Amino acid sequence: MQRRRLGASGIAVSDICMGTMTFGSVCDQTLSHQICDTALDAGIDFFDAAEMYPVPPSAETFGITEEIFGSWLAGQPRERITVATKVTGPELGWFTPPVRYGRTSLDRHTIVRACEDSLRRLKTDYIDLYQTHWPDHGMPYEEVLEALTHLKRSGKIRAFGCSNETCWGLMKSLWAADLHDVERYQTVQNNFSLINRRCESELAQVCRRENVSLLPYSPLGGGVLTGKYNDSLPPGARFTDYLTGDAERQKNMAKRFVNERTLETTRRMVEIAESIGVSVTAMSVAWSKQHDFVASTIIGATSVEQLQESLAADELILDSETLARIDQVDVEIPTPMTEDGLRRL
Question: Kind of pairing, strands 12-14 and 213-214?
Answer without folding.
Answer: unpaired
